[in-house]
# Entry
Amino acid sequence: MGALEQFLEEFTYAGIFLALFLAGIGLPLPEEVPILASGVLAHEALVRWWLALPVCLAGVLSGDVVLYWVGRHWGERVLAWRPVRFVLSKEREQTLKEAYHRHGVKIVFTARHVMGLRAAAFLTAGIVRIPFPRFLVADVGAAMVGVPISFGVAYFFTDRLHDIMADVHRAQRWALLVVFVVAAVWIVVHAWRRGARLEREAAAARDTAAPPR
# Structure
């Protein structure tokens, strides 16, 4: 965080945009970090908040759009690129494709708020050819929620930022645990129902095959 703040302070708005653009296209740097750093710099009056916040929005959205068009232009061929597989594994690719087919553009809105899923989701959105206007509306709407919140937390609570982030990570861990528990329960119930259905089908098949008395 300290090194990033120095970089952003040196290159100001161009540095903010570049850091967020690179994070958006898959650099192993959570985009929340440059946004938080920008909020801290704005709090310290090293950048103007009313310029830094739009630059943050432009940085995250530009990376998302580039990933979308890479996926849309090259399609499945992009999956042969080795760097892409670090972002989009075969398992994640299949999961996202199925999610897009079931839920459509809602996945874009959701993925924008999930660290580690954004790049893969936006790339897949292009591969499955989600209409660009719908993609852009969902992405802009999600960014207009998440980016100002992160920026505002850093701007208004700079002195307590470390404690706040610790609480956020703690909440994320609990939320993840809840998700795993719900998923495990769903898998068990689904497996039980499937087993019961197969037993009924097998019993019906035996009754059909049995010779009449």
The chain has nine helices and no strands. The longest helix spans residues 161-209.
